[in-house]
Amino acid sequence: MNWKTDLKLADLEPATRIEATCKRCGMSHYQTQAALMARPVLAQTYLDEVERALRCTNRFCRGPVRIALVHDGKTEGFVGGMA
Amino acid sequence: MRRPTQIERLYLDFDGFFASVEQQARPRLRGRPVGVVPFEGAEHTCVIACSREAKLRGVRNVMSIADARHLCPDIVLVAQSPDLYRRAHNALISEITAVIPVDAVKSIDEMTCTVAADDRDAPQALGNRIKARIADTIGPYITCSIGFAANRQLAKMACKAGKPNGNMVWRPEDMPGPLLTLALADIPGIGDSMERRLIDAGITSMAALLATQPKQLRALWGNVTGERLWYALHGYDVQAPPSGRGMYGHGRVLPPGHRSPEQAQVASRLLLTKAARRMRREGWNAGQLRLWLDLSSAGAWSRSRWLPAVHDDQAVLAGLDHLWREALPALPRGVRIMRVGVTLFDLTRASARQLDMLVNDEVARRRWEKATEAVDALNSKYGRTLVSVGPWTPPPGGYAGGKISYTRIPSAEDFW
What we know:
The complex is a heterodimer of chains A (83) and B (416). Helix content of chain A is 19%, strand content 19%. Chain A has 83 residues and is α+β, with helices and mostly antiparallel strands. Chain A has a 3-stranded antiparallel sheet. The longest helix of chain A has 7 residues, at 47-53. Chain A is globular and about 50 Å long. Chain B is globular and about 65 Å long. Chain B has helices at 17-25, 52-56, 65-71, 82-97, 123-137, 152-161, 177-180, 192-200, 206-210, 214-221, 224-233, 261-281, 313-330, 362-382; strands at residues 9-14, 34-37, 46-47, 49-50, 63-64, 76-79, 104-107, 110-114, 144-149, 167-169, 247-253, 284-294, 300-310, 339-349. The longest helix of chain B is centred in the middle third of the chain and has 21 residues, at 261-281. Chain B has 3 domains: 1-173, Alpha-Beta Plaits (2-Layer Sandwich); 176-242, DNA polymerase, domain 1, CATH 1.10.150.20; 247-415, DNA polymerase, Y-family, little finger domain (Dna Ligase, domain 1), CATH 3.30.1490.100. Chain B has 416 residues and is an alpha+beta fold. The chains are: A alpha+beta (83), B alpha+beta (416). At the A-B interface, helix 1 and strand 2 of A face helix 4, strand 7, helix 6, helix 11 and helix 14 of B.
């Protein structure tokens, strides 16, 4: 059990970027939720199923990938040292 | 301003993040004193992070390697792995989000959340759920300290007071009791110079600071931060205002064998290309470019150059070439450049480019922007820098452009 088994692809915002890193060659690529939802087989899946469905985009590798959500929009600085 | 009567905020800070991620990822390091250093074989720099075992032996973060070795001769030094820390950060945020929504990520190892009404009576149980989730899904070697209080600032201080592996609750009705045991320097936002200023004003203890008036702290700080801090320490619902993006830049300490001006120029091209990529991804144009050079004992050199609100590689690199043409004759003969940095600033939205009537560059710009888009698409498709404008020579040590700072957690693209 982990966050990927708890969360459905459809629950994410369409602009959410999903990073897929190849477990074999280390190459990373990005997909948006909207692009993945356009694949009918993924529309009702949980993220662990999405992870299993994706493959490395390097055509000489095609290895399994590890997915991660990109949380860029949540970063906030300290202002005058205040949290 | 509202003064909460219940716990409303949670602040979470991972304990010795870089070192504990190394221990989680590499079993041979578990239970041993570990120091993370900037690069392999580094001897004349400092330990940027250390494990709990090393801290128990007196080693501290940002301690010289020589001092760390003196205190702890069997310390295991490992080169930093920014990509590993970045991936751990993403996984940890996702796991924490499965327990409670994260309001803001304050740095690679700190985040803050709003405590839901149902959890306000028993916040420690929420803290235990988060810790159990991390231990079950990520691993037991990455631990965190959690602080609960009426606002973010107090929650952060509670979190620090409970370190390591704490679960500290500062209820509004118990305040200011827990604060009175702390020194002025324990307050985030009070550094050495501010502490001296407070002491000069006769404020030498936490009790004396709490007895001041908001406007008095505003005057001492010289800006609104002092007043905000007063309200935060007194339990009001106040926090740092959102800050906007002001610049994109990268800096790099050059390895000893790569400190000639020509080598620094090559490194600066790569750093600028990476900064421009980030700027494009987030939809900005730059109106100015700065090049700065740390010449060690010979001082420093820096100069800025105006740019016609651009984001394509050709335009920013042409600006950099101009700056280097100014720099090279101005540098002392035989100078060694310790550190080089580039900054793109004076940002405007790329979707609303203001044309300059003295620079008729719109047609050329659009062509270069299309070319840059194509370059970015190819690099994105192949997951590495396959195409670049001009030479692409990564400096020794790797991770150029992948530096982790407080407000920036690099993405995989930053390592390409």
